Amino acid sequence: MPTPRRSRPRNRFSNCIKNCTRENRGLIMNSVSTIRVRRGQSALRCSAALSGLTLLGLFGLCFAANAADKPPLAPDVAAPFSTNSRLSASLEFSLPALAADIERDIPRRLASIDERISCVHRRVLFWKVNANCDVWGYVERSGPVSLYGRGDRVYGSVPIYGALEGQGANRFTARIHGETEASATIEASARPRLGQDWSLDLDFSDGFRWSEPPVLQVMGREIPLAKYAEPRIRSELGTVRSRALTAARRLDLRDKAATAWRHAFEPIALSDSPAISLQMAPQSVSFAGMQAGSRTLRGSIELSGTAQTVIGQDRPAVTATELPPLGQSVDAPGAFDVILPVQIGYGVLKDRLMQAVLAMPPVAGLAVREVDLYPSSGKLVVGLRVAGTADTGPDAGRWVYLSGAVQADADGRMIRLSSLDVVTSDEGLSALVDPIATQLGSKMNVDYGVAYDNLLAAANTKLNRPLKDGFRMEGNLASARLENVSLLADGVVIAVRASGELKILYGM
Predict the structure, then answer these.
(1) pLDDT: which is higher, 215 or 57
(2) Which end of the chain has the least Cβ crowding within 10 Å, N or C?
(3) Cis peptide upstream of residue 274 (ω within 30 degrees of 0)
(4) Confidence tier at 488 by pLDDT (50, 70, 90)
């Protein structure tokens, strides 16, 4: 049985020649057949001549057949850069000012005492002596109200002074007389709490202590008078508590929270060039606790809603809603998140791509004369006008198209082209351009870290600004992670989620 003939390997240009018209194929083949190998020429020079003529035929006649391989222009739809976020509104009040307000409602004299007591009850010789005495005096506030805070409690104190006298109440005891004075300190502590109706409640605990208890000396006998003064003082403490609560509620936390709520809807220009703004739309509010320092009382609420970043001058109109009822309490205000979009124009990428092309040596006798970029269905299309190295005409060569994904590094500082493939159904043409695509894929990358750092710095500057009505805004964005990459009509947009804190402050 005869051995079957091996089929001759297909020339890598055969598919391209197959796609040409019959007349063009004839021209190419006729050009090849006119090569005459002179006696003594090496086979290597013959092969080079054949390859050169074949390349000229390919680029002069066959590229028109691949025009249908050009991917269509199809940019991504610009989605809103929106995220659920939380910011805190902290309302801070001066404890000395609050103490002065409370002090205005506390009278100077806390109690007046006018009592008749049994001051003598003893046996003198054969008689039992029972005598009454009249005790009178007063208890007054001897100093200012002092407030200070520690943790979630507020502590207050006020010094008091008492002066008492005792006098025998009848003729037998008329000569009995005594007087005393003593100092005490009223001490109180309260844990401020915010009710569902925005009322500020003070969970009081109070008391007082004598520096030296008041004692009346009568006929060598000590008569303690604290028990006569203390009921009056305790009765007055109830009045002090009521007046302190009234003073605390005059802080009007609901009105100030409503003002902070309205300020949260005001758009914030994060960057002027490019124009990027932030629009927040709070939806709920929760109490985040009271904290007290040596001179301040601070109440914090958490506003939760959406934070949307807008590119361009057109900002969405958002109308502030009414302050909603206070929701469930949270331990502390949560982190603030915002999407910062970094935009890289296709012109920048085109320049970078051209730099990479100029640094490349010719591949397979081909040179790239011009490049183009545009998005197509989630991929970045790279157009290359390719010509033979000997063809130096201004319009020489034909366009061939590559397509690849734009990939961002994990650290969020650089983008690069990934899986750059030749867009053609012609295997021969793909084999020619594949080496160029491989080199471009390895060299094409853009570092956008500086652009992001500049945007972050500009945003932090804009987030720190005065507001109206005695309020101000204070924010700081630090950590960031990559959100997504979009290929829009005018450039690549890298969306980075920046996290930090944003506060609306009053009195701080």
Answers:
(1) 215
(2) N
(3) yes
(4) very high
User: Which amino acid does the sequence have at 16?
Assistant: C
Are 497 and 82 within 8 A, CB to CB?
no
Say what the pLDDT of residue 421 is. Answer: 86
* CB contact burial 403-439 (16+ within 10 A = b; e otherwise): bbebebeeebeebbbeebebbbebebbbebbbebbeb
Find where tokens 């009195």 sit. Answer: 507
Burial class (CB in 10 A: 0-12, 13-18, 19+), 115: middle
Which residues are 112's β-sheet partners?
Answer: 138
* Residue-level length of the chain: 508
At a CB cut-off of 8 Å and minimum separation 6, what does 454 contact?
none
CA-CA-CA-CA torsion sign (29, 32, 36, 37): negative
Angle at 396 between CA 395 and CA 401, to 5 degrees: 95
* Residue 138, beta-bridge partner list: 112, 163
Three-state SS sequence of 74-112 = ECCCCCCEEEEEEEEEEEEEEHHHHHHHHHHCCCCEEEE
**Three-state secondary structure call for residue 28:** helix
Separation between Cα atoms, residue 69 and residue 256, nearest integer Å: 64
Reported as a single tens digit per residue, the pLDDT across 461-479 is: 999 999 988 899 999 998 8
DSSP string, 258-304: HHHHHHHTS-EEEETTTTEEEEEEEEEEEEEEEEE-SSEEEEEEEEE
**What is 94-249's CATH number?**
3.15.10
d(CA 467, CA 459): 16
Q: Using alpha carbons, select from 96, 110, 99 the residue that is nearest to residue 184.
A: 110
- Smallest CA-to-CA distance from 354 within 367, 366, 363 is with 367
User: Interhelix angle for 226-249 vs 95-104, to 10°?
Assistant: 120
Cα–Cα distance measured from residue 153 to residue 287, given in angstroms and rounded to the nearest whole number: 16
Give the H or E element holding residue 25. helix 22-33
Structure-token match 């944003």, residue found:
502
Domain-wise residue ranges, the chain: 14-65, 94-249
DSSP bridge partners of 408: 415
Residue 253, token pair as written in the block? 């936390």
Model-level pTM greater than 0.70?
no
Helix (H) or strand (E) holding 493: strand 491-506
Answer yes or no: are the C-beta atoms of 491 and 303 closer than 8 Å.
no
Q: Return the percentage of the chain with pLDDT > 90, whole number.
A: 13
What is the identity of the amino acid at 410?
A
Q: Count the alpha carbons within 13 Å of 85 in the hemisphere toward its beta carbon.
A: 27
For 233-259, the pLDDT digits (tens) are 777 777 777 878 888 777 888 888 899
Contacts of 317 (CB under 8 A, 6+ apart): none
E-assigned strand segments in 365-490: 366-376, 379-388, 398-408, 414-422, 445-447, 465-466, 471-488
